[in-house]
User: What shape does this take?
Amino acid sequence: MDNDLFGGSEAEKPKAAERPASARAPAPPKAASKPPASAGTPGEAGYNASDIEVLEGLEPVRRRPGMYIGGTDEKALHHLFAEVIDNSMDEAVAGHASFIEVELDEGGFLTVTDNGRGIPVDPHPKFPGKSALEVIMTTLHAGGKFDSKVYETSGGLHGVGISVVNALSDVLEVEVARGQTLYRQCFSRGHAQGAIETLGRVQNRRGTRVRFHPDAQIFGAGARFDPARLFRMSRSKAYLFGGVEIRWKCAPALLEGRDVPPEALFRFPGGLKDYMARDIEGKDLVVDNIFSGKIQKTGGHGSLEWAIAWLATGEDGFSSSYCNTIPTPEGGTHEQGLRVALLRGLRDHAERIGQSKRMASVTSDDVMATCAAMLSVFIREPEFQGQTKDKLATLEAARIVENAVRDGFDHWLAASPQQAGRLIDWTVDRAEERLRRRLDKEVSRKTATRKLRLPGKLADCSNAGAAGSELFIVEGDSAGGSAKQARNRANQAVLPLRGKILNVANATRDKLSANQQLQDLALALGCGLGSHYRDDELRYDKIIIMTDADVDGAHIASLLVTFFWRQMPKLIDKGHLYLAIPPLYKLSLGGKTAYARDDAHRDELIASLFKGKKPEIGRFKGLGEMMPAQLKETTMDPKARTLLKVVVEHDAREETADTVERLMGNKPEARFLFIQERAAFAGDLVDI
Ligand code: 0RA
Assistant: This one.
């Protein structure tokens, strides 16, 4: 960070006069730590009033706390603690502090004490009359780690700064023991309550103590720290940095009924390995040993530690990663390095023992699938990204982690061929399982999208499979309405088509694919057209063309049959296509009712059923005129209806093709000839 409160990094910044004009725009809240650019020569406190407001004010934090701590809920409240302890952890990691004390008292005050160098208290050169401590506490992003030369490693860079905690506390007191002197300054809601005081001389004490109370105006009157959560957070810090001792204290009154001790001491020289061992206690592992390691670099930069176990109980794995003891739940470059190291290490080992083929489809997801992994890195000036700044972005971290873990992993695998073999078997199983799952998913997705893409006019049946289901293609919306009421919802679907459909025999492909009626039909069928036809994708067993018993109906039926013949001949071959035979006449006499398909049938019924007496004869003008119950009992109910199956005999294929071309094709003279040849039968036609 290029804050120059201590004058340390001024030389690295461009001179004010050279900065582009755009840099003079008022800074957004988050950028407020940038030195103001509008006035003054470098190194001089030449700020104008508006700059000071931007630079100094913590009002933006109180106005929009969510922007700084992600909200005002429980999580955000505990973020305040994280911010404070992270500052102390920085001192510890940098080797300046050896212990940190965390204490929650009955009044909800939280105190964090360390034995580090202490926040500087001398007068600040750029803010006459103010101590450095006051500037740090009341200035956005001047939370401490502004000068990388001061800190070896720093998580605080990531943090929003201790000033944010100050802004959101109704009471905050800082005590600093530095140079054998004890100082104190008090704040409320981001404002100093007076100048820094000197309390007196101290002998064996140095460091910083921050005591604060979250502001109820921000977090609500009922907001309280959760002792269990603070306990866990404190403990994990000690696991993450073996070189620190954390002392935990909590007012017993807050602990009733809770499984949290009032006092505890955390020191874990065994670090992450111990943490992992405790975490996975009692769980089945693929290999008994935890794979762990630790690299310690002088000065901290590049140090890292990891602990990995593979869970065998079919549980999902987890990875917790950290940078400078700060959790990085979104992962980032360090986790990436770990994944690469594990995958490549395992692959190379498989190759060495002649099993590389089996490992070919294994990905790092398979290796990590049931893996419990903890990774902690320490780097100077880490960069974070993502909305919540929870993801490590420093590229160098990937390389550092990959190299170190890879080295350790190679040794670990080579040291125990048996466990290496088990791990390879395990990950290969995971890869196979993943591939199986993907296949299943694809299948169900296909079904889902097909359902989604069904035409709106289709009243589909509720049965899932094609077996036993029927699609009625009906003529017109009114017939469609009757058919929908008459059907058996479970296995009968209805698709109404409006008017004459396109004659596919003399239409171009373009015209065909632009035709909405046929598009709808193809979608409903689900089986694809032409060479794309797949019988096993057909969504129905029987496709039933149900048109009025008149010339128009016959015409529509022949257009449809032509469509199927030309576009889906297999659908006909497999015996899926039928014609419904709705009645043309209703005959009734003395409570007796019968329906007749055509004139011949009518006459036959009069002779047989009505014994030659004259029944009342009604003629249906169309399906839409029939009552749903009538339609059901005459045409749709499998128990009563008659269906005509459309069949093309194998020997008759050519002749059929010929006839269809003549009757439906684009040569009117051929059609004319056909009609002429059959002029003798024209009487029948006229009668209908
Ligand atoms: C700024 C500069 C220095 C230390 C700190 C801040 C500091 C902040 C906190 C917050 C909690 N505990 C802390 N301890 C130290 C370095 C001062 C120097 O060089 O002596």
